[in-house]
Amino acid sequence: MTDQTTDQASSSAVWGLDVGGAHLKAASSRGDARTFSFPLWKQPSQLSERLGALLEDARVDRLVVTMTAELCDCFKDKEEGVATVLDGIAKAFPKVPIKIWHTGGRFVSDAEARANPWGVAASNWLALATWVGKKFPCDAALLVDIGSTTTDLIPLRDGTPVPTGRCDPDRLASGELVYTGVSRTPLCALLSRVELGGVSYRTMAEHFATTLDAYVWLGDLPEAPELTETADGTGATRSFAQRRLARMIGSDPTRFGEDDTTTLAKAARQAQLTLLESAVRQVAEASLPDAVDRVIVSGQGEFLARRLRDRCPRLGRSETISLASRLGENVSQAACAYALAQLALIC
């Protein structure tokens, strides 16, 4: 959630860079990893400066890139978004050779990326799935990557991703992309009503609280007082989370006690799990009709991915591989960037 780096000396020459709309993530093939919070849609002109700060102490001889930031609503379309991201990267690293990951499963040049922006837009999920398939091959697997904003559910067969869709609209239709995450999703997108003390309340369709508040309150995510990218700009603490959650029914902590807060937070978690369970069924029916041998979980929301696995009969007996356990928390949260750096060594 907060700005993070590993403690390893940053001597690695090959770095993967994942440019999102809310976070910048970088990782080297050696396992150095860092995540910076950066609301690009608010400050697109500062992209190159923030990218430079992200890797200011690193030796970067080669850079491989993926992005989702092109979707930011400060851009009129994907062409402008892709071009702006690539301009920012080129300005930040003017002497570094750069390749961009394509949804065709290959690296392309800057010129090809600009000529075909839909081919490189929102391609980070495929980089992660491609590397996961090579690292943990099996007959049938499902990658469950839950981040701050979105969830990717990627089917794999014999170590190869077999997605139904490649671009955001097609992936939303297939269930392989679910636009819900454990930090930035507004609770009004999950809950229209909540029952508290035997009374059913309609919730307020306002950006008063997010999933971050529910999971901080429940203890699934740690408190982060310095994190102010919240619904009201105050820190990610339990006391502030309670205040934000109370606003969902037009209340405040003087009348909205701890029991009410816990009930609302659990209702949000239940609604999110129900949404994701439906998507898992859709993906499994389309691409993994037989037994699923492995479930690979990653991202900030690994804790939710584990709950999801336990709720889905098709996944309950599958072997579970946690990227956080295998690679460390920081690398797991920057898993797409790490996967890029690994793929750059073999592609």
From TrEMBL:
Gene Ontology molecular function: hydrolase activity
Domain Hydantoinase A/oxoprolinase: 65-310
Xref: InterPro entries: ATPase_NBD, Hydantoinase_A, MfnF
SUPFAM superfamilies assigned: Actin-like ATPase domain
One Pfam family recorded for the sequence: Hydantoinase_A
Source organism superkingdom: Bacteria
Protein name as it appears in the record: Hydantoinase/oxoprolinase
Source organism (scientific name): Kolteria novifilia
Lineage: Bacteria, Pseudomonadati, Planctomycetota, Planctomycetia, Kolteriales
